[in-house]
Amino acid sequence: MDITRRDLFQIGGKLLVLASAGATLEQIVGAEAPSDAYKMAGHWWGMIIDIDKCIGCGNCVRGCSRENDVPKGYYRTWVERYQVEERKQPVVDSPDGAMNGFPPLKREDIKAFFVPKLCNHCAESPCVQVCPVGATFVSPDGVVLVDREYCLGCRYCVQACPYGCRYLHPETRTVDKCTLCYHRITRGLTTACCENCPTGARQLVDFKNPQDPVHEFLRKNKVEVLKPYMATRAKVYYKNLDGSVR
Amino acid sequence: MTIPGVDGFMYPNEVELQWGLLIVLYPYITGLVAGAFILASLERVFKVEAVRPTYRLALLTALAFLLVAPLPLQLHLGHPERSLEMYLTPHTSSAMAMFGFVYLWYLMVVLLAEIWLEYRADIVRMAQTSTGLRHTVYKALTLGSENVSPAARTIDDKVGFTITVIGIPSAFLLHGYVGFIFGSVKANPWWSTPLMPIVFLFSAMVSGIAAVLLLYVASMKLRRTPIDMPCLDTIARYLFYTFVIDFTLEMLDLVHRTYEADESFRSLDFMVHTRLMFSQVVVQIFLGTLLPLALLAATQLWRFTQARRRALYVTACSFTMVGIFAMRWNVVIGGQLFSKSFLGYTSYKVEFAAREGLLTAVALMILPLAILVVLVKLLPPWEERVISKSGS
Questions:
Q1: How far is B89 from chain A (nearest CA, A)?
Q2: Would residue B2 count as lying in a domain?
Q3: Do the Cβ atoms of A152 and B73 come within 8 Å?
Q4: CB B12 to CB A161 under 8 A?
Q5: Do A174 and B79 touch (CB under 8 A)?
Q6: Handedness of CA B214, B215, B217, B218 (dihedral sign)
Q7: B37 lies in some domain
Q8: Residue B62 domain flag
Q9: Is 90 exceeded by the pLDDT of residue A36?
Q10: Taking 80 as the threshold, does the pLDDT of residue B75 lie above it?
């Protein structure tokens, strides 16, 4: 077969487009593009968290930090410890986001529990709504992502997030947040935080998968999302969430 | 373990403030633009002839500040080189993206067009009488239209009037929109109120009117020209009325929040009594609002000599400018000092010589004044010109 110069340009051009598409996805999620077998439309990702199972060890925070190269002093996920006493404001702490766990409780006679936090990957996300250039978006499989190549660093989304999940990355000068380990879940793996949780308190779920245990979990348990009055359609569901949690 | 500057519990990513001093300047500067333009429209649309001596100065002031308005935003961005994307690929659901278009509309369609029409006859005359570089500049400013016949001037007047009529809602939109950018953030109870755009608007009018009065008095002093007292009295009267509405709206917001006392109230109330005590209660409410209101009310109730009235107006306006700045500070900074968990507070320290520091902010406030000096040299706004024009 003879290849003309025109053909060469056309093939080269196509390769260039494909390569840059791959590069863009890489830049978005911080890893390789999803595998070919992965069909975005076939998934709708979220997470379930069993508060009673969380022991506040901070493995999830360390795992996330390692996996995603999270800058020091910022958190894609963190764990809060609530100490709730009757008729009093709850006392909450999260030293270094629980990167190194928690110091022992000073009192044993009060209600205390741990609450892991991360981006809620809201279906009607205020951060997506306010982004002036659409650099923050919801992927077709329900994950809220930030395009680092496009983000202006205006931080309107940081203000709009009711859960405090976003920060300005000190090196890229763009907004950063939990990607639900998009580079992993699109290859059939679970998130780093879920993988590192020793008690199974956190579990990645796919609402579009009829076999996913999330359906039974939602049917059998009393669940709640954080700040339901914000009407963001958050997709991180907590089992036995105490009313004091904000 | 305690974090320096933090009391109680903040979500870990909340400790550092995202919007600092430059974002305080942004609504302050746009407010001055809208306020100055609305003062100018008093003469043009509502035929308040007494304020005629400040008409052109108000327009030039609005332009000088409008040209600087995007700079604090630009300097604040993590990637300023991408800012044009807001115009090229705007996200239509974003209040911030749409503000870019409101700004352009206001700059290009309203302000520049009105100033050009107002000055057109002067520009043509100066193009004909000047030489060298000045001639080239004025010639370029004529935009090729040198017809200043009475018929052409009548058309200028009609078009100018129409633009001002469009300009008033546009000025309302410009600053109301800035209020909406904050007021529509439902995650933040300190900002999230439908009153925010209207409070921003009236405070803008207050600051713009006060700024023009101060600039007018300063210009007359510098030029050793007598101050037109009926003009000053009228501006001060309008400032008083606008201020009363502004203060009423702010008190309505306060009373509403206190009476409703929703989930956020305890946290916000504590913040006002501690971290915002000085900037909100002392500077904004007492020094920046009640004191100037009392001084302006005094000028309405009792008779003073001209010199004393001038002094009272200048004092009231100076405190007003500080008060409105404090209001912007309390909105922008105050809105980030408390945790969205309502369980803690962080603090904010202004850096001195940093990209978003005090030095930059001072430079950004001096810059519009420098631009104004150039504009005044280029397009003199003074009364005698108007008289000579109408005389000719």
A1: 6
A2: no
A3: no
A4: no
A5: yes
A6: positive
A7: yes
A8: yes
A9: no
A10: yes
Question: What is the SS3 string spanning chain A?
Answer: CCCCHHHHHHHHHHHHHHHHHHHHHHHHHCCCCCCCCCCHHHCCEEEEEEHHHCCCCCHHHHHHHHHHCCCCCCCCEEEEEEEECCCCCCEEECHHHHCCCCCCCCCCCCEEEEEEEECCCCCCCHHHHHCCCCCEEECCCCCEEECCCCCCCCCHHHHHCCCCCCEECCCCCCEECCCCCHHHHCCCCCCHHHHHCCCCCEEEEECCCCCCCHHHHHHHCCEECCCHHHCCCCCEEEECCCCCCC
Identify the three-state secondary structure at position A83.
Answer: strand
Q: Is B142 helix (H, G, I), strand (E, B) or coil?
A: coil
- Tell me the two tokens of residue B320: 């007003």
Name which of B183, B203, B251, B179 is nearest B38 in CA terms. B203
The pTM of this model reads 0.91
The alpha carbon of residue B3 is apart from the nearest alpha carbon of chain A, in Å, by 9
Host domain of residue B347: 7-391
Mean pLDDT value across residues A72-82: 98
The 10 Å Cβ neighbour count of residue B344 is 19
The DSSP code for B50 is G
Mutation choice for A interface testing from B13, B16, B76, B332 by most A CBs within 10 A: B13
Residue B207 confidence (pLDDT) above 90? yes
Decide if B1 is inside a domain. Answer: no
Tell me: pLDDT of A96 over 50.
yes
CB pairs under 8 A between A and B: 125
> Which residues of chain A are within 8 Å of residue B181 when distances are taken between CB atoms?
156
- B387 pLDDT tier (thresholds 50, 70, 90): very low
pLDDT band for position A14 (cuts 50, 70, 90): very low
* Number of structural domains chain B divides into: 1
Which of B12, B91, B188 faces A131 most closely, judged by CB atoms? B91
- Say yes or no to pLDDT of A26 above 60: no
Band the pLDDT of A35: cuts 50, 70, 90: confident
**What residues form DSSP beta bridges with A146?**
A136
Residue with the larger pLDDT of the pair A32 and A152:
A152
State the pLDDT at residue A7. Answer: 52
Q: Is B112 helix (H, G, I), strand (E, B) or coil?
A: helix
Compute the distance between CA of residue B57 and CA of residue B267 in angstroms, rounded to an integer. Answer: 44
The partner residues of A112 in beta bridges, in order of sequence, read A83
Closest partner residue to B86 (CB to CB) among A96, A103, A132 is A132
The sign of the CA dihedral A215, A219, A222, A224 is positive
Contact A217, A227 (CB under 8 A): no
Say which CATH number the domain at B245 has: 1.20.1630.10
The alpha carbon of residue B341 and the mean position of all alpha carbons in its chain are separated, in whole angstroms, by 33
Angle between helices B358-378 and B55-68 (to 10 degrees): 140
Nearest to B19 among A74, A117, A155 (CB): A155
- Report the distance separating Cα B37 and Cα B111, nearest Å: 8
Over 70: is that where the pLDDT of B259 sits? yes
At residue B295, φ and ψ (nearest 5 deg) are -65, -45
pLDDT surpassing 90 at residue B41: no
